[in-house]
């Protein structure tokens, strides 16, 4: 039952779509208005619940794409065999209502409180979504924390938030690697994230950097293990897995 | 109990994925709670555990030894929770 948020409880709330905009051919960013939204931290997620006419219920978790203080935005990739994402990316229009509960999570959160700790973000595909929230939070708060985002995507048209990421600047570096298709004259990296690329891009292990890794499960396992090999203490490598979606 | 022979597969998620249902059950943020495996004794944050989701609910396993730590089954409007694989669950 959706209802008014009660402090200290996590309740389903009715969220009204205020806009839907395309990010790539298969990815949409949806902005919501939620009357009693308590606000969120960068890196948190929400649960989305859809109820069919016959009572069938499907729930999925989606990372929050917007910064703390901004209206709630979710960026959703359409999975062709999915139950929820085809509806969210294909059917949802401004004015529609869905049920959301959140914000959820305290582990995969960046609060930006430690200016002396460089930040390493490693994204596979739509795993970049929580990092957009962190990068926007960093910019909005005037943080000077040095940050590097290593973003693995299938091809340049599959890069989400490309215009925004290309303007990151000011202590924020964005490095792309394209795994399947590179445009003519592509001067960036190609292929999967591996030890060689991480050695080149990641802050050295002795920098006491904080690393966040988000993407398909296989991607996260490989990247997290490589970072530990590079000298990152395991408790400085925070991970969030999206499961068995196609590797970016 | 069936052990995983080769560790988590590509469909495995992690404890972040059950942050919502655990909040619903315990009434507080749980992904940063310390979970101690009743089998191998390793303590990690809930977010770091292996989690499998299905239409029936969630199974949470130890990332070190893959033993079952917790099972949550949704029935009607009710969550049935089995925490017998945990030696301790400490909210930070």
Name some characteristics of this structure.
A: 248 residues; Elongation Factor Tu (Ef-tu), domain 3; Rossmann fold; 2 domains; six-stranded antiparallel beta sheet; 17% helix; B: 92 residues; mainly beta; five-stranded antiparallel beta sheet; three-stranded antiparallel beta sheet; 39% strand
Concise overview:
The complex is a heterodimer of chains A (248) and B (92). Helices cover 17% and strands 32% of the residues of chain A.
CATH architecture tag of the largest domain in chain A: 3-Layer(aba) Sandwich
Outline of chain B: globular
> What is the CATH class designation of the largest domain in chain A?
Alpha Beta
> Sheet bearing the most strands of chain A, described?
6 strands, antiparallel
Query: Could you give the distance between the termini of chain A?
Result: 37 Å
Beta-strand portion of chain A reads 25-35%
The count of β-strands of chain B is 8
Show unreliable segments of chain B.
Answer: none
Largest sheet of chain B: 5 strands, antiparallel
Low-confidence stretches of chain A: none
Class by alpha and beta content of chain B: mainly beta
Q: Kindly identify the CATH topology of the largest domain in chain A.
A: Rossmann fold
Distance between the amino and carboxyl termini of chain B: 30 Å
Specify the helix fraction band of chain A. Answer: 10-25%
Can you walk through the features of this model?
The complex is a heterodimer of chains A (248) and B (92). With 248 residues, chain A is α/β, with parallel strands linked by helices. Chain A folds into 2 domains: 13-104, Translation factors (Elongation Factor Tu (Ef-tu), domain 3), CATH 2.40.30.10; 119-241, 3-Layer(aba) Sandwich (Rossmann fold), CATH 3.40.50. Chain A has 5 helices and 12 strands. Chain A has helices at residues 85-90, 129-140, 162-166, 195-201, 217-229; strands at 13-24, 27-33, 45-51, 57-63, 73-77, 97-104, 119-124, 147-153, 172-178, 189-190, 210-215, 237-241. In chain A, the strands form 2 sheets. Chain A has a 6-stranded antiparallel β-sheet with strand order 4-3-6-1-2-5. In chain A, strands 10-9-8-7-11-12 form a 6-stranded parallel β-sheet, with helices on both faces. In chain A, helix 2 (129-140) links the parallel strand 7 and strand 8 (147-153). Chain A starts with 12 loop residues before the first strand and ends in a 7-residue tail after the last strand. With 92 residues, chain B is mostly beta strands. Chain B has one domain (13-90). Chain B has one helix at 19-26, and strands at residues 13-14, 34-37, 43-45, 50-53, 57-61, 68-75, 78-82, 86-90. A 5-stranded antiparallel β-sheet of chain B has the order 1-4-5-6-7, with no helix packed on it. Chain B has a 3-stranded antiparallel β-sheet with strand order 3-2-8, with no helix packed on it. The mean pLDDT of chain B is 91. The interface between A and B is medium-sized, with 26 and 23 residues.
């Amino acid at each position: 039952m959706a209802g008014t948020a009660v402090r200290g409880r996590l309740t389903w709330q009715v969220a009204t779509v205020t806009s839907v905009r395309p990010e790539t051919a298969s990815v949409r960013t949806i902005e919501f208005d939620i009357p009693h939204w308590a606000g969120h931290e960068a890196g948190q997620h929400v649960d989305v619940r859809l109820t069919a006419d016959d009572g069938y219920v499907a729930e999925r978790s989606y990372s929050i794409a917007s910064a703390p203080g901004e209206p709630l935005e979710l960026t959703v990739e359409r999975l062709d065999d999915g139950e929820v994402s085809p509806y969210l990316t294909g059917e949802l229009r401004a004015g529609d209502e869905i049920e959301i509960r959140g914000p959820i999570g305290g582990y995969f959160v960046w609060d930006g409180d430690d200016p002396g700790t460089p930040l390493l973000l490693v994204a596979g595909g739509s795993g970049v979504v929580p990092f957009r929230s962190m990068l926007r939070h960093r910019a909005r708060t005037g943080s000077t924390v040095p940050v590097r985002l290593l973003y693995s995507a299938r091809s340049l048209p599959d890069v989400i938030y490309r215009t925004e990421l290309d303007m990151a600047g000011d202590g924020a570096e964005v490095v792309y690697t394209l795994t399947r298709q590179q445009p003519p004259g592509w001067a960036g990296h190609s292929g999967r994230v591996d030890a060689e690329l991480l050695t080149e891009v990641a802050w050295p292990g002795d920098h006491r950097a904080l690393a966040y890794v988000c993407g398909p499960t296989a991607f996260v396992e490989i990247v997290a293990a490589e970072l530990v090999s590079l000298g990152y203490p395991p408790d400085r490598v925070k991970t969030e897995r999206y499961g068995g979606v196609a590797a970016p | 109990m069936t052990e995983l022979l080769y560790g988590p597969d590509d469909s495995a998620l992690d404890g972040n994925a059950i942050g919502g249902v655990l909040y619903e059950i315990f009434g507080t943020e749980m992904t940063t709670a310390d979970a101690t495996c009743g089998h191998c004794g390793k303590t990690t944050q809930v977010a770091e555990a292996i989690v499998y989701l299905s239409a029936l609910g969630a199974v949470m396993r130890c990332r070190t030894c893959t033993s079952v730590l917790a099972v949550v089954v949704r029935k009607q409007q009710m969550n049935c929770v089995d925490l017998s694989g945990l030696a301790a669950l400490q909210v930070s």
